[in-house]
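Before relying on records like the one below, remember that each one covers exactly one chain. Contacts with other chains, cofactors or solvent are not represented anywhere in the record.
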Amino acid sequence: MSEQRLVAALAVSLAVQTLTAMGLAVPAVLAPVAASDLDVAPTALGRWVGFSYMMAMFAGLAGGTFVVRYGPARMHQLAVLGVALGLAIGAGANLAFLFACGALLGAAHGLVNPASSAILATASPPRIRSTVFSIKQTGVPLGGAIAGVLVPGLLLWMSWQAVVLALAVGAAMLLPLVALHRPVHDITRRVEHLHLRSFVAPVVEVWGNRAILELAAVSGMYSAIQISFLTYLVSYLKLELGYSLVAAGVVFSAAQISGALGRVLWGVVADHLFKPRSVLAGLGLVMALCGTAVASFTAAWPPSAVLSVCVLYGATAVGWNGVFLAEVARLSPEGRVAFLTGGTQFFTFAGVLIGPPLFGAIASWAGSFGAGFVATAALPLLVAVPMVARRGR
């Protein structure tokens, strides 16, 4: 029975994670096509991504309290509804509508981790917790990979506005399936009074826990790299290297898939071979090397070499999250997993909030996406090198 409960909990968490990630990846794939219709530059996508993750950041803070009050399954339902409504509004092809779309998609994404962590922390045995959390986190790259393949394919048959609307209808179909899990996971919910301190408390609690604060800082830096890489890769390949949108989408999807496989691999490594912090430090060092390599791409690079570098970059820059979340869950006091996950997620999404606009500003100033990749390649070193030094001592 416990194994069946774990499989069911993992399945619903993975499905909702994949859906919210797909929703946020759609604009990155559509940017080269939709930007001209909206009369904006492709580099302006960073501001939309930053705004979306700002909403995710604050939704995550509220997520811990909402999970306790309403139950994690209801929060999963709310996330699915946010994706469906957000995409439907985004099909309006108006800048104001697009920012409303970003608010809903970001808030939906921010609710997922506190809810999923509360479910999986009780359903998964400690000996495989990193692996379980990493499998759940494969939903993020899988969602991006689905967007990278599905959106260019649908664009061959319909306008980008129709594509977004079709995805909204598909998202809504997940609602009744998520509702089936409410009787299992929402039975422990309790009424708590909502006040301002409820939304600030997770950050305060993280700030007072040195071990978890270090993990939060790592997540902030790594998430800035991850989202910048994924946000601008398609535009970089199409606009500077001359790839077709379909070919660029294939590379984007391959990077996402390698990130999904990497998340499972690094989870197994952290469970059985090396300590989670050592795994996180090693991933940061490889990220820095890959970012530098991506910045050196030219049209003369063989497509196979470009693909190989992007796959390795995806495996590291996209693959770290499960190890991070499992370590947060391990260090959290009993009953505080959702709160501390929401608190660390504030730092995670702060990196996402800063990364794409910073990348876009550098790329716009230098006139090249490569400049953005080389500048952001230094970020993981700020946390990876100190972790390596501490492990050495």
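The chain has a mean pLDDT of 79.
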